[in-house]
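User: Could you check the structure of this?
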Amino acid sequence: MFERNRTRDHGISAGSSRPFGSGWVVYMTASPIRPIIPSVQPYTRAVVPQAAAPTRSRGPLPLANLAKRPAGTLRFGLATIDTNGRIADSTLFVALGWKTGIQLDIRTCGGLVLITADEHGVFQFRSPGYVRIPVTARQRCRLPLGDRVLLAADPVNGLLVVHPPVVLEELVDGLLTARLQEATP
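Assistant: Sure, the predicted structure tokens are below.
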């Protein structure tokens, strides 16, 4: 397939090589591999009848049922999301029984961030007094850095709920409207 010849008179020998400076230039004498050229016919997709196509509708994953808790067991706090996306309230974390190294599951639901201790959780409670809220959760719940949030801890169920200002505004608006309607005769 390849041939290599050297000539002394710097001419071209038998069509297989040609001198280049003091070295050799080798070129292929066999026919090259034919290029693969795609068909010029347009691609047509197989049409699947509508009735035969499976219909999948994925809804949100179900949330665990919360245990009944006595009234007055919720603990509340206010926190500011720092420049690293962390919230701090060591009093609530102690009430929840969270210690450094515990695995956490962080989800969003209805504009809230739900945080629970979970041995299969992806996130970790690293430094005492801080929980880092992932960027995706902050974006879904419209939580920019520097925002103040309401934290509600449910020690009976081991749940920490982060309430963004947008959700608090909706709650207060709804409550205020209801109370004002009750007060007017």
